[in-house]
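haha ok so turns out i had the wrong file open the whole time. this is the CORRECT one, sorry everyone. sequence first:
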Amino acid sequence: MMSVRVVGLFVACAALGGCQTLNDLTGRAAPAAPEAASVADTPATGPALAAPAVAAGGVAALAGLDAGRLLQQWGEPTVRRREAGAELWTYGKPRAGCTVLVYLYPNAGGAMTVTRSEALPGGTGPDAVMACARANALSPTS
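then structure:
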């Protein structure tokens, strides 16, 4: 039977091993994310991704909106996360019961533009996203 110390050592090693990234294991440095005002920079984990086509299930009211217009209509997101040239904006209040996720990619001119949105829980349908937006007291887009 294994001693408590051996089991404890095994658990500690497994927990610490889970903290490594692929870059840590390969020795390659992750490219730094470009600086931007008021955005919490998260190091990019690879080359910049091309913007996906706007999903058919995306919310028509949000798809194609630029970041400035979204900020004007919904205000500062709860969380902004930058990875590989894209951004994820999260809107959610603790008592709303759902969170709106908005994905932004640079358009042909370089401006960050909404390509997709979804509600958690709820899905990517326009009704689910807008219901969650209303639950978070976000004004409808025009």
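Strands lie at 79-83, 86-91, 99-106, 112-120.
again sry for the mixup
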